[in-house]
Amino acid sequence: MSTTSNGSSPVSRDIERVSPELVAQAFKFQAAILADVGGRRGTLNGRVKPLSPKMKVAGPAITVEVRPGDNLAIHAALAIAKPGDVIVVDGKGDQTCALIGEIMATQAHATGIAGFVIDAAVRDSHELASGDFPVFSAGLNPCGPTKSVAGRVNFPISAGGTTVNPGDLIVGDADGVVVVPRADVARILELAQRKVDAEAKRIAAIKSGDTRATWLEKELRAVGMLAEGEAL
Predict the structure, then answer these.
(1) Rounded distance, CA 87 to CA 104, Å?
(2) In the chain, at which end, N or C, are there fewer CB atoms within 10 A of the end residue's CB?
(3) How confident is the prediction for the chain on average, in pLDDT?
């Protein structure tokens, strides 16, 4: 029986990507900054984290959906991904076996792929964590995957509870992973720079002795923790 509907292929090769210029700008920002200015949304569940806190990745998403425990579609993604892409896998959060290990990570690195973000388990964690190729995963398991179940490449997915569309901007660091919709990247990066500037100013003020949060009492009154006219 066919795994496709309406004659469409489960592997889409032609997608629009975030420009390399915007990716380079995005790499300068923390995932937390981008999440804040993006409305505090777009982050993957905290189970998806880097194998080493030094790892950071930024690039357009190549999206992959697999059945738990099968990595056939990830191999298809490796074959069509372009340098700078981030392969993002909806592995259903499954941790009963690993979807990638050292061999696939080595292949991805050698072809210029920017990194893996996998909502599932991986293996060879010591080797991967000691290397300089970014791998983010939901866990570890020494059991290897099967390669026998059809999946999809470059279709909308849900990874770590967050929607990811092909070509969206992916930024991951020690705190986790954030997704920025492709059409919104330029605006978000502008807001991110403003936030970085404002935070730097506030940190400098705190170090100079201005430790009082000017907004605090207003917000406490708004939620009923302080009466009108009452102060801390």
Answers:
(1) 12
(2) N
(3) 95
Q: Which two tokens stand for residue 171?
A: 């930024």
Which positions ≥6 away from 157 have C-beta within 8 Å? 63, 64, 65, 88, 90, 163, 164
The answer, yes or no, to whether residue 11 has pLDDT greater than 90, is yes
- Shortest CA distance to 58 belongs to which of 6, 115, 15, 14? 115
> Do the domain assignments include residue 200?
no
Instruction: Give domain status of residue 73, yes or no.
Output: yes
Count of the separate structural domains present in the chain: 1
Domain hosting 38: range is 20-183
| Residue 203: Cβ-neighbour burial (10 angstroms; 0-12, 13-18, 19+) | exposed
8 falls within a domain: no
Per-residue pLDDT averaged across 127-139, rounded? 97
Task: Give the containing element (helix H, strand E) for 78.
Answer: helix 72-80
Asked whether the predicted pLDDT for residue 3 surpasses 50, the reply is: no
Identify the CA nearest to 182 among candidates 167, 164, 162: 167
